[in-house]
Amino acid sequence: MVGLAVSEITISEFRQLIHPDDARQLRNRFRNLSPESPIWEGSFRMIRPDDKKLRIISFYSIAEFDQHHKISFITGVNRDITEQESTITALQESEKRFRALADSSSVLIWMSDVEKHMIYFNKRWLSFTGRLFEEEIGEGWLTAIHPEDREDYRHAYADHFNERIEFLMEFRLRRKDGQYRWMLGHGVPRYLEDNLFVGFIGSCFDIHDRKEAELKLVERNKEKDVLIKEIHHRVKNNLQLISSIIFIRLNKMAHNEVRSFLEETRNKIHSIALLHEHLLQMEGINSIQMHEYMNRLLKNLAVVNGFRERNIELITSIDAVTLDIDVAIHCGLILNELISNSLKHAFRDRSNGQISIMLNRQSDNSTLLVFSDNGVGLPEKIISGAEQAFGMQLLEVSFKQLKADVKIDRISGTRYSIKF
């Protein structure tokens, strides 16, 4: 321990090894020994003569006194604690550096022990809450969390603490002026070098301005949704009013061509009104689920056009495809026109027939709408010739709006493959 052989150790030699400052303190303590206070303990620094290195020695001694109250002898234990002291000093220096860094940070920083109790808050935290350190430690800090957020935060903190996993959570913390500010809390488990868990350390960022902006945006979006739904409601009602007016006029019309035109126009209006009615029942306002909309539309067209009376079978295969509103409107108009044309031309001299409609999403993320019937097929002059009907012109407009790739097959009836 002292770097000398036992035969070389003398009291005078040993005194020479002790640091001068410590030697004076040792002498003062020695002089204070008495039968009533015989314990002599402490530590001192010494320089080993063999390697010239400074060592720290801890000692514990008991003095024995004779009948004249003079020290007769001293027994004790010395222990080299240089390494332990170095570790403690390093930890203390590390602690000082951490606290200096944490206290200079603009972020609120906290630290907890293995019992979940808070043991440290940096100056920024105390400045923000306006509370004393003694008020915050333990679970005192929870009183500054908004009552509506307190239990959620407590449970989230406890659950992640027990699982030893990182957490991230938004909550409101009361500032010293009484205002609750939105904070983003972040906590991670702390471990020593030997992987010993010693608690959590975390930080809180003030995100109040960003959170308030988000909440206002959400509120504005809700108001916008209400407004748009009101618009859809009014459009639907106006379209139904127009449809009713046309229906009243139909009953007074004698000219078959005019009656036919007005009936087709009424069906088109109804297909658009049905879409707006469907939108009112959905949470989203920018897109529509085509499976439900097309089934309702086709069911209505089948009733209006007398499929049952004319013995027309309707076969559908419609996937759960979601499309934008404008696209859905054109799909409704296309189906309305194709069914109308099919009933006019494909089954003119037949007592029965079949119409098939399919809609699905392709592997390239495009949408395929297929309409087919088993009728006689449309004449070329009806589709694209000089006698092209007004309805076919409307189809061309819808195809153009969808930027659709359209293929027409008239070999066995009529088949439209519309890809967009």
What can you tell me about this protein's structure?
There is one protein chain. The mean pLDDT is 78. The chain has a 5-stranded antiparallel β-sheet with strand order 5-4-8-7-6, sandwiched between helices. A 5-stranded mixed β-sheet has the order 10-12-13-15-14, covered by helices on one side. Strands 1-2-3 form a 3-stranded antiparallel β-sheet, sandwiched between helices. By secondary structure, the chain is an alpha+beta fold. Helices cover 45% and strands 26% of the residues. The protein is built from 12 helices and 15 strands. The protein starts with 10 loop residues before the first helix and ends with a strand. It is rod-shaped and about 145 Å long.
Q: Helical proportion?
A: 40-55%
* First and last CA, distance: 89 Å
Number of helices: 12
- Point out poorly predicted stretches: none
- In round numbers, the mean pLDDT is 78
Could you describe the largest sheet, including whether it forms a barrel? 5 strands, antiparallel
Shape: rod-shaped
What is the SS-derived class?
A: alpha+beta
Order of helices and strands: HHEEEHEEHHHEEEHHEHEEHEEHHEE
**Number of extended strands:** 15
Radius of gyration: 45 Å
> Which strands sit side by side, in order, in the main sheet?
5-4-8-7-6
Quote the beta fraction: 25-35%
